[in-house]
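Quick one: structure for this chain?
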Amino acid sequence: QVQLVESGGGLVQAGGSLRLSCAASGTTYILYQMGWFRQAPRKEREFVGGVRWSGDGAYYDESVKGRFTISLDNAKDIVYLQMNSLKPEDTAVYYCAAGPTAGGAYSYWGQGTQVTVSS
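Got it. Here's what it folds into:
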Protein backbone atom coordinates (compact mmCIF):
# COMPACT_ATOMS: atom_id res chain seq x y z
CA GLN A 1 0.00 0.00 0.00
CA VAL A 2 1.00 3.58 -0.62
CA GLN A 3 0.05 6.55 1.51
CA LEU A 4 0.07 10.12 0.20
CA VAL A 5 -0.03 13.27 2.31
CA GLU A 6 -0.29 16.73 0.75
CA SER A 7 0.77 19.97 2.36
CA GLY A 8 1.50 23.56 1.44
CA GLY A 9 -1.93 24.90 0.58
CA GLY A 10 -3.14 28.27 1.76
CA LEU A 11 -4.41 31.70 0.82
CA VAL A 12 -2.49 33.77 -1.70
CA GLN A 13 -3.19 36.86 -3.76
CA ALA A 14 -3.57 36.68 -7.52
CA GLY A 15 -0.16 36.69 -9.17
CA GLY A 16 1.45 35.00 -6.19
CA SER A 17 3.03 31.59 -5.79
CA LEU A 18 2.61 28.48 -3.68
CA ARG A 19 4.41 25.17 -3.56
CA LEU A 20 2.49 22.04 -2.71
CA SER A 21 4.19 18.91 -1.45
CA CYS A 22 3.03 15.32 -1.60
CA ALA A 23 4.91 12.90 0.62
CA ALA A 24 4.63 9.26 -0.38
CA SER A 25 5.24 6.36 1.99
CA GLY A 26 4.78 2.63 2.00
CA THR A 27 5.53 0.46 -1.05
CA THR A 28 6.55 3.35 -3.29
CA TYR A 29 8.74 1.08 -5.42
CA ILE A 30 5.57 -0.11 -7.19
CA LEU A 31 4.74 3.35 -8.47
CA TYR A 32 5.06 4.41 -12.09
CA GLN A 33 3.33 7.76 -12.24
CA MET A 34 2.31 10.62 -9.98
CA GLY A 35 -0.37 13.16 -10.72
CA TRP A 36 -1.88 16.33 -9.37
CA PHE A 37 -5.61 16.97 -9.62
CA ARG A 38 -7.88 19.71 -8.36
CA GLN A 39 -11.54 20.19 -7.62
CA ALA A 40 -13.21 23.56 -7.34
CA PRO A 41 -16.59 24.00 -5.64
CA ARG A 42 -19.46 22.67 -7.75
CA LYS A 43 -17.07 21.45 -10.42
CA GLU A 44 -15.71 18.10 -11.51
CA ARG A 45 -12.25 17.05 -10.45
CA GLU A 46 -9.75 17.89 -13.16
CA PHE A 47 -6.25 16.81 -14.04
CA VAL A 48 -3.52 19.38 -13.47
CA GLY A 49 -0.34 17.56 -14.38
CA GLY A 50 1.68 14.40 -13.92
CA VAL A 51 5.16 12.97 -13.90
CA ARG A 52 6.77 9.57 -14.05
CA TRP A 53 8.05 8.30 -10.72
CA SER A 54 11.52 8.39 -12.29
CA GLY A 55 11.13 12.19 -12.32
CA ASP A 56 11.14 12.74 -16.05
CA GLY A 57 8.42 13.34 -18.58
CA ALA A 58 6.29 15.91 -16.77
CA TYR A 59 3.10 16.91 -18.60
CA TYR A 60 0.46 19.50 -17.84
CA ASP A 61 -3.06 20.55 -18.63
CA GLU A 62 -3.19 23.55 -20.94
CA SER A 63 -4.78 25.67 -18.23
CA VAL A 64 -1.62 25.55 -16.10
CA LYS A 65 1.13 25.02 -18.66
CA GLY A 66 3.87 27.59 -18.24
CA ARG A 67 2.73 28.51 -14.73
CA PHE A 68 2.90 25.22 -12.82
CA THR A 69 5.89 22.89 -12.52
CA ILE A 70 6.00 19.36 -11.14
CA SER A 71 9.21 18.00 -9.70
CA LEU A 72 10.10 14.93 -7.73
CA ASP A 73 12.66 14.20 -5.02
CA ASN A 74 13.18 10.46 -5.25
CA ALA A 75 15.48 10.42 -2.25
CA LYS A 76 12.65 11.71 -0.05
CA ASP A 77 9.71 10.30 -2.03
CA ILE A 78 8.17 13.76 -2.30
CA VAL A 79 6.43 15.26 -5.34
CA TYR A 80 6.15 19.01 -5.60
CA LEU A 81 3.75 21.25 -7.47
CA GLN A 82 5.20 24.73 -7.87
CA MET A 83 2.41 27.13 -8.77
CA ASN A 84 3.30 30.59 -10.08
CA SER A 85 1.21 33.44 -11.46
CA LEU A 86 -1.80 32.12 -9.61
CA LYS A 87 -5.27 33.17 -10.70
CA PRO A 88 -8.56 33.17 -8.79
CA GLU A 89 -9.73 30.33 -11.05
CA ASP A 90 -6.94 28.17 -9.62
CA THR A 91 -8.85 28.11 -6.33
CA ALA A 92 -9.60 24.47 -5.52
CA VAL A 93 -8.74 21.53 -3.33
CA TYR A 94 -5.59 20.00 -4.77
CA TYR A 95 -4.96 16.28 -4.59
CA CYS A 96 -1.95 14.20 -5.42
CA ALA A 97 -2.40 10.72 -6.76
CA ALA A 98 -0.21 7.77 -7.67
CA GLY A 99 -0.50 4.85 -10.00
CA PRO A 100 1.52 1.68 -10.52
CA THR A 101 1.16 1.40 -14.28
CA ALA A 102 1.77 3.61 -17.29
CA GLY A 103 -1.47 5.09 -18.54
CA GLY A 104 -3.42 3.25 -15.91
CA ALA A 105 -5.66 4.41 -13.14
CA TYR A 106 -4.43 6.40 -10.20
CA SER A 107 -4.87 3.92 -7.38
CA TYR A 108 -3.76 6.00 -4.43
CA TRP A 109 -4.95 9.44 -3.38
CA GLY A 110 -4.05 11.99 -0.75
CA GLN A 111 -6.55 13.82 1.43
CA GLY A 112 -6.22 17.11 -0.44
CA THR A 113 -5.04 20.58 0.46
CA GLN A 114 -6.99 23.81 -0.07
CA VAL A 115 -5.59 26.53 -2.31
CA THR A 116 -7.43 29.84 -2.34
CA VAL A 117 -6.40 32.66 -4.66
CA SER A 118 -7.90 36.06 -3.92
CA SER A 119 -8.40 38.71 -6.57
